[in-house]
Amino acid sequence: MSSSETYQELWLRVHDLEIDEVNGVPIPLSPSWQKICVNLSGGADSALLMALLCAIIQERGYKTKIDAITFDRFWFSKPWLKPISEQVFLHIKSMFPKIVDKHHISFLAPELEECRVNLEDSHETRSAFTMATYSFNDYHCFYNEDVGAVFHGRSKNASTLLDHPHRVKRRDNPGPEEMLEKLKRSEAYMIRPLLFVEKDWIIDQFIKNGWEDLLKITRSCGSNLRYLYKGWRFKADSPPPECGECYWCAERKWAIDKVV
Ligand SMILES: [Zn+2]
């Protein structure tokens, strides 16, 4: 049984949803949802997920609208992130003007990125960023009665880069049991259909759908001004070139070399 089949089974057990399949990856969606949100960072994964959801909604004739949620993170050290997310949002809106609705932008202080917080009634801790994401998603899901779910585009680390020192280890191999535990808890509304795919699958969907223009305006590089772009002056319309050294650059290069 493949990982994605296991994931689909989990979803069917916890929710009662229609499952669309995009090149072997199950994407749960309900035609009854008036609105869904997508966490949109400006990177390739979340941009692809949002465009795929639009395409499914359009093809099936659902009435669902999509809002994007972006966190303005690292405003001082990576000031291009927010403008890029806005460009990506507007591009997807131009592709699917009848489906894409609003772009909600929330702020996260950079000091909180590395900070961990205790969960109420638990010894467990989570990053402040994770908590902020869940809180904002909770706000949209539970205080806006129209929102059926929030989609998150996190994908799996490339199997060929598992020894890269800068990779995020929790993306190595999320197991189905871990996912079931998460689904049972408060984030049951958060759908992560790309957890079991690697970047080559992501790039391949851009190509298969003819969305290369969208791919080009996304940015994967994780480097910041302090280390790699010292002295560079930020202009919203001209972010620095991708560094070519960080994990995210290596992953994108590996995937594009493999697919294109
Ligand atoms: Zn980079």
Secondary structure elements and pairings:
Blueprint: H1 3-14, E1 18-22, E2 25-29, E3 35-39, H2 44-60, E4 65-72, H3 81-95, E5 100-107, E6 116-118, E7 125-127, H4 128-142, E8 147-151, H5 176-184, E9 190-191, H6 199-208, H7 212-217, H8 225-228, H9 247-259
Parallel strand pairs: 3-4, 3-8, 4-5, 8-9
Antiparallel strand pairs: 1-2, 6-7
Helix pairs in contact: 1-5, 6-9
Concise structural overview:
This protein has nine helices and nine strands.
Overview features:
single chain, Rossmann fold, globular, alpha/beta, two-stranded antiparallel ribbon, 9 helices, binds zinc ion, 260 residues
Overall description:
The protein is an alpha/beta fold and 260 residues long. The protein has a single domain, classed as HUPs (Rossmann fold). It contains nine helices and nine strands. A five-stranded parallel β-sheet has the order 5-4-3-8-9, with helices on both faces. Strand 3, helix 2 and strand 4 form a beta-alpha-beta unit. Helix 6 packs across helix 9. The chain is globular and about 50 Å long. The mean pLDDT is 84. Bound molecules: zinc ion. The site of zinc ion has 9 residues, from helix 9.
